[in-house]
Amino acid sequence: MTKVTEDKTTEYLLQFCYNCEHACTCDTEEKCRECWGAQGLLDREQDETRYLLDQVHA
User: Fold this and answer.
1) Per-residue DSSP letters for 19-42?
2) What are the φ/ψ torsions at residue 3 (nearest 5 degrees)?
3) Helix/strand/coil for 5
4) How far apart are CA 31 and CA 39, in angstroms?
5) DSSP 8-state assignment for residue 3
6) Residue 42 contacts residue 4 (beta carbons within 8 Å)
7) Is there a contact between 17 and 37 (Cβ–Cβ < 8 Å)?
């Protein structure tokens, strides 16, 4: 699993939790990270895809 840095936490909360039906149960940052990991949102491929999309839209 990719290490989540503090500066990415807010971005991930907005990106992954906004429409999540379980968002109300994630009341701490640790719970959010566990949820993201369980859903496979922190895989390296996701980070590479995000990086490439950021480069295209920069």
Assistant:
1) T-TTGGG--SHHHHHHHHHHTTTT
2) -75, 125
3) coil
4) 12
5) P
6) yes
7) no
The pLDDT tens digits for 5-56 are: 666 777 778 777 888 888 888 888 888 888 888 887 776 555 677 777 777 8
Q: Which residue is associated with the tokens 């906004």?
A: 18
Estimate to the nearest angstrom the gap between the alpha carbon of 48 and the chain centroid. 13
Owner of token pair 């992954």: 16
What is the C-alpha separation between 3 and 18, in angstroms, rounded? 21
What spatial distance separates the first Cα and last Cα of the chain, rounded to whole Å?
26
Claim: this prediction has a pTM higher than 0.70:
no
Task: For residues 26 and 41, give the distance between their C-alpha atoms in angstroms, rounded to a whole number.
Answer: 15
What is the helix (H) or strand (E) element at residue 49, kind and residue range? helix 44-56
